[in-house]
Amino acid sequence: HLSKRLLAVAKLVPTNARLADIGSDHAYLPAYLALNDQLAFGVAGEVVKGPYQNAKQEIKKEGLDDIIEVRLADGLAAIKATDKINVVTICGMGGTLISDILATGKDKLADHPQLILQPNVGESNVRKWLVENNYQIDSEQIMQEDGHIYEIISASYTPVKQELTEAELIFGPWLLKEKNETFKAKWQKEIAKLETILIELQKASHVPATKKEALQTRIAQIRGVLDGEG
Ligand code: SAM
């Protein structure tokens, strides 16, 4: 059942974790971990009825009701203090939604659980939230599945705020160090996309020059990173 993407997330979850998977849909991730004896306790949180029912069914089918509780709740409201959650996963959503969920439910993070986040887009929003809220990025992965490129960010609490440069927020501090082939492919694609937009803007006379310049600057920044200068 488990996609390559969620398998990569699963590998980052420590053994015997007390996990809350927020936006769990079919609860495939917590179910997989429980079936592999890697979970002490799990919460599968869903805000939408359909996916909530999917999760309920999956947990029942696999006979995991004693380890995993499926809860209908908005974001981190699925977590109770008595759960003693030490890992939170939020996967397969936009980075803005992920950081909104974290910000709205911040009181549920009082015990500083490890956060494993897999934004589909807008990764820099997630990194920004993490560093501003005393989380340091411990590891990052970038991987490709079914023509999509995904990033996975694992972070843990730090009393001393981590400082990231603007480039590190955008590209990821670890991904930027490594610059592997998938990373290059992702940002090549982004350049191609931005260049298409730029060509359209250049055809349109009413577009302010500053807008085109901003786009050119962004393309140049990505080029700089790919060419190894930053
Ligand atoms: N996490 C699974 C994965 O990575 O394959 C499912 C991803 S699915 C695309 C996103 C899920 O997040 C949907 O089922 C949606 O209902 C749920 N979701 C969106 N906003 C949420 C929120 N505020 N709280 C809980 N779940 C949410």
TrEMBL record:
Entry's transmembrane regions: none
Molecular function per GO: tRNA (adenine(22)-N1)-methyltransferase activity
Source organism superkingdom: Bacteria
InterPro entries in alphabetical order: SAM-dependent_MTases_sf, TrmK
Gene3D superfamilies tied to this protein: 1.10.287.1890, Vaccinia Virus protein VP39
Protein name: SAM-dependent methyltransferase
Upper lineage: Bacteria, Bacillati, Bacillota, Bacilli, Lactobacillales
